[in-house]
Amino acid sequence: MTTVDLADPPVTNPFTGTTDLPRAAEGWTQLVTPDGRLHPDVDVDRDALGRLTRDLYRGMRLARRLDDEAFALQRQGELGLWLQCRGQEAAQVGSVAAVRADDYVFPSYREHAAALWRGIGPADLLRQWRGVAHSGWDPEPYSFHIYTLVLAAQLLHATGYALGVQRDGSDTVVVTYFGDGAASEGDASEAMNIAAVNAAPMVFFCQNNQWAISTPTASQTRTPIHRRGAGFGLRSEWVDGNDVLAVYAVTSAVTEHARAGAGPAIVEATTYRMGGHSTSDDPTRYRTDDELEAWRARDPLARVEALMRAEGWSDETFLGQIQAEADELADRTRRECLALTAPDLADAFATVLSDVPQLLREERDAFVAYRGSFLD
Amino acid sequence: MTTVDLADPPVTNPFTGTTDLPRAAEGWTQLVTPDGRLHPDVDVDRDALGRLTRDLYRGMRLARRLDDEAFALQRQGELGLWLQCRGQEAAQVGSVAAVRADDYVFPSYREHAAALWRGIGPADLLRQWRGVAHSGWDPEPYSFHIYTLVLAAQLLHATGYALGVQRDGSDTVVVTYFGDGAASEGDASEAMNIAAVNAAPMVFFCQNNQWAISTPTASQTRTPIHRRGAGFGLRSEWVDGNDVLAVYAVTSAVTEHARAGAGPAIVEATTYRMGGHSTSDDPTRYRTDDELEAWRARDPLARVEALMRAEGWSDETFLGQIQAEADELADRTRRECLALTAPDLADAFATVLSDVPQLLREERDAFVAYRGSFLD
Amino acid sequence: MLTLCQALNSGLRRAMEDDDKVLLMGEDVGRLGGVFRVTDGLQKDFGEARVVDTTLAESGIIGTAIGLALRGYRPVCEIQFDGFVYPAFNQIVSQLAKMRARTGGRTALPVVVRIPVGGGIGAVEHHSESNEAYFAHTAGLRVVYCASPDDAHWMIRQAVAGDDPVIFYEPKRRYWVKGEVTPEDAGPPMPLHRARVVRPGADVTLLTYGGTVATCVAAAEAAAQEGRDIEVIDLRSISPLDVATIEESVRRTGRAVVVHEAPTFAGFGAEVVAQVTSRCFYSLEAPVERVGGFNLPYPPAKVEEEYLPDLDRILDAVDRVLAA
Amino acid sequence: MLTLCQALNSGLRRAMEDDDKVLLMGEDVGRLGGVFRVTDGLQKDFGEARVVDTTLAESGIIGTAIGLALRGYRPVCEIQFDGFVYPAFNQIVSQLAKMRARTGGRTALPVVVRIPVGGGIGAVEHHSESNEAYFAHTAGLRVVYCASPDDAHWMIRQAVAGDDPVIFYEPKRRYWVKGEVTPEDAGPPMPLHRARVVRPGADVTLLTYGGTVATCVAAAEAAAQEGRDIEVIDLRSISPLDVATIEESVRRTGRAVVVHEAPTFAGFGAEVVAQVTSRCFYSLEAPVERVGGFNLPYPPAKVEEEYLPDLDRILDAVDRVLAA
Ligand SMILES: Cc1ncc(C[n+]2csc(CCOP(=O)(O)OP(=O)(O)O)c2C)c(N)n1
Ligand SMILES: Cc1ncc(C[n+]2csc(CCOP(=O)(O)OP(=O)(O)O)c2C)c(N)n1
Ligand SMILES: [Mg+2]
Ligand SMILES: [Mg+2]
């Protein structure tokens, strides 16, 4: 019915075995310059790289389309709230594509592009923001936990899950996403420390999008966040988060490292939150147009488009196909959103515990009877 | 009446202006070898160094005597609990002596040697452990906050206090003590981060005494704790915590650095908890005699004694004087301990808030009346 | 006429003018003015040293506020949403609340913790919690709830001026409702810990606070149409609790209903029931009823109106106590 | 005959034998066997992967236990002392308690949080707290209190076998008291959430749990000397609460006293009063009395005996309900 199952066919990794990725002047790993030129030191199979790039581009483009449509739905009153991932598509798609489909992901709340890549559909993505549920999807089939809104709490869940993986003798890796702001919470530090002490098979993926609502990263931390990870004993990487190939290559390297039992890593992806914090936010109160413009010029999608053009990896057919897919996804998003209806509060009483104890039963029955009384 | 006011006369700092302190093979700063030889690169005024050494030795020796006496009092049932600082005297005295008397200290709960140095007397030190109060002394006159038993909580208090100092434009520095175990708490990381971001004038002094109750440091952290501090952007120092001169020199350097507005520091002092965690603990369940013996050979007091002997800084008179002082302190400790009597619970009702609201008043009055009824 | 939000803003402004030791601190309280704009414009006027955008760490906010208070400052901390106070729970319960008692009464910690509270604004999870029972049960804290712009303005000033830690709740769904604020020269405001009879009545007493005060008044007005004379008391302070005002009322009416948004089980309403029952036992014509949130985690926005005590559920309880 | 501590140990051992997904984790639970030795010998027998000495971070303990539970494990976490559960409050209240409801009932988190609780052992501050009211007010948690070796053994096994998060309180001052533990083949144990009539009586009902159960029994025995026939009910589970057992008793006796160590104000006793009053209103001869800790932070050890409900204060309250 739809083509959004992005992880199929599985991507092949042209970077396997590559060490020593090139760095930009800023110090971060970068494979593609902002104007779309591949770094000359990138010495991998070009065909495979082209296929990978197209796959990643498709994921980013579809994610942006879903994100835009959800934003519009919020503005039209169909969603209570939406947190855009615009600008962070490279960081998310590059990282999630680099891990195995059964590597377990603990997202924060803005990882729509990563979720979409894993096959989570629009209804599931929008449910929570329409106010009809507190979570969107069943984590199991996607190996993708529900969103966590309490900042940094999921980093400990991810760590615990990784300790379980370790006990099981499985070669699964756990990936968890968090922001530059969330990194300041005690839970984030506890998680990095516990992961390091136990050599847990996991990747802490920080999207440093420069802002935590109105608070800039410089007010949040004195050192780059990946350096903090190193302090705890994590393998530490810094990557241009708007360069999807760099993110992919770095993430696959640290994931294989963790999978081999060599311990956890932190990846700091420097990127930018192009929208407001949420649809309730007014970013003009705290950031300049100039800043926004400067980052617009580094749009991660535009960079891939330029690269594909330069390398001859895309043509009108390919772009048209994706355009059509995106249009279909937007339609589907709207359709599925409007079909999401309110739950019955009476059902909630059976979701709190594994049974419904007497007091809760009495309360539910009274509620149902009371509500019924209005129907008479 | 007594001679325990250790900070008087004030110590003069022979290390002022010294950079580049010598390091031992372990990587930590060390000025005096375990067998008491001064490192040849220590190039400071010998007289001043001798005077300083004697002062520090006196502080350590008196602290050990108080600690021993308190331990005995606990074994005799006069204290409910005691947490020995035996083995950590160099770390504590070296650091507290290196800061100004008005530099504000936030201790954990084992800093008896530091407290004694600041002039806090036995009654105040024992009160809480005899179960007659929850805290020992009025912090103001000593610039020494009460003990905090909830691990790492005081690191945030210290940080806030330092932010206040900064706002006041004062040149006070804040020093806070914590253990290798407490370092794992989220509060510890939040504090280091907030201090670093704000360039707060403070020193995080970690006594890594190898154990948190039965948990060895290796199970607590993958990297040395000072490295973690560096990750947050603190100036980071590692020192032989059983070398009182090294601790003194390192602490005075980072304190002056912080006082000059150059930002906070972490000092990790590697030392050893020679007793059990507390008088309730049975360390034979988790550590070997060999380990204890190895550290006994590194006793911080013995090291200073050997140094003073080698350098001709001590003689029988000096040692005899200190012995007498220590005897007097032990007597006083016992006397003051036995004189500590239970408070009146009825008084507690007026200590909860700045007034006594109606319900609390009713409760107190009922309690007093009820208690009075038994006297009839 | 000011909104409750503006009344808080003007109250904080006055508090900062009155005492230069007063600081505001929290996530996004500076440039942004807080996500609800309660501190709007204050950083511009008082500077970054007095209106502080903290790092994103609630334990850090309260923990450093304690240190600042020890240094002589009077920090007013904003917790961005009710559901995000829990990371600070340790610092609040073990340190902030207990410091005075631990020091035998010596050490005051004048720290105010402002918490936008409760539901009714269509928010996502963790943004609609009513967690006052936790703090009311904690000795050493004062716990108050403003429900009108006038109280918002005066209560925040009183809270900041006092020498004890205060948990200061601001019902989110009332932020944008307007009301008069009593002018400066109108005499002293009602004491911070006094309950207010917002509507006198003779038949039943409604005991409530925060977001449900307006709902109770509306219920009383609806009931008046049917000839029922309902008294509504806004408790304002739940710790300490003004038991005298409660007792006087219920002895008179003989019937009471406690209303709050929080789940009822072991909620603050239970304490009110216990106080009323023990103080007015022989005047009570019926058991005291409780109307509150159901004993579930706060539900998704689309069904929150069914979850929150509304006029009908309150009147239903009134019927029950009157029928008894 | 086993001590309560040994009975817990044997219960945990059985739980680990029965299901190899059961893990024990906490500070010093391994080599040391915990500061109270509840897990003594278990690391030796089950290995370091199943009895885990964690880092010193309570939020980390509960947060990683949640992750382990999501992976299919059944973690039993030890919080070293009651006063040190607060750093984990956020993980318990927002994550552990709510996960099932947030996922529409889909995701179970079978995590047990063991907390040595309460005073009476002469400890320093933060080591004698009774904080059950916080958790009882939190939907999504089960909150139970063992008071005898038999219950300790069987209740911990039931808690571990269940699929919901359980806050499992162990009254410290009862750790070393001995009692019989019902053997394996004696039929099914009492359900985890059932209250137990530990002493039948006709005149007054004492409702209690944890450390004060024995005190109430002693009080009842003393009262019997004076011809008063007092029923003592050990609630065992405070959430969910077995209201049926309570209701049956108080309807019969017409008088009730609630006893717990925690401060009374907004304490769990208030909920018991509210339940009793609403369910037994027309049978009540006197207002339900509460006997608890005073509304102060737990006091220094030398005066804790005056702070804790004792036999005399309980009998005093019994006198009051009988005099009414
Ligand atoms: C514990 C907690 N405190 C506060 C908040 C409110 N809040 C939601 S998002 C946010 C900023 C997060 O910034 P960052 O971690 O950088 O992630 P981003 O939104 O930039 O993706 C804040 C303060 C929260 N959700 N949880
Ligand atoms: C928040 C908290 N958790 C647990 C404890 C119990 N506890 C007291 S001391 C201690 C070990 C502390 O080790 P460390 O920080 O290394 O200090 P040391 O005792 O070695 O001086 C523990 C677990 C506590 N006091 N506070
Ligand atoms: Mg961010
Ligand atoms: Mg230690």
UniProtKB/TrEMBL annotation, chains A, B:
Catalytic reaction list: N(6)-[(R)-lipoyl]-L-lysyl-[protein] + 3-methyl-2-oxobutanoate + H(+) = N(6)-[(R)-S(8)-2-methylpropanoyldihydrolipoyl]-L-lysyl-[protein] + CO2
Region (Disordered): 1-20
EC numbers on record: 1.2.4.4
Keyword set, alphabetical order: Oxidoreductase, Pyruvate, Thiamine pyrophosphate
Cofactor(s) this protein cannot do without: thiamine diphosphate
Domain (Dehydrogenase E1 component): residue spans on this chain: 58-328
Family: Belongs to the BCKDHA family.
Function: The branched-chain alpha-keto dehydrogenase complex catalyzes the overall conversion of alpha-keto acids to acyl-CoA and CO(2). It contains multiple copies of three enzymatic components: branched-chain alpha-keto acid decarboxylase (E1), lipoamide acyltransferase (E2) and lipoamide dehydrogenase (E3).
Protein name per the record: 2-oxoisovalerate dehydrogenase subunit alpha
UniProtKB/TrEMBL annotation, chains C, D:
Cofactor(s) the record lists: thiamine diphosphate
Keyword line: Oxidoreductase, Thiamine pyrophosphate
CDD domains: TPP_PYR_E1-PDHc-beta_like
Domain Transketolase-like pyrimidine-binding positions: 2-177
Presence of keyword Metal-binding: no
Alphabetical list of InterPro entries matching this protein: THDP-binding, Transketo_C/PFOR_II, Transketolase-like_Pyr-bd, Transketolase_C
Keyword flag Cytoplasm: no
Listed name of the protein: Alpha-ketoacid dehydrogenase subunit beta
Organism: Micromonospora chalcea
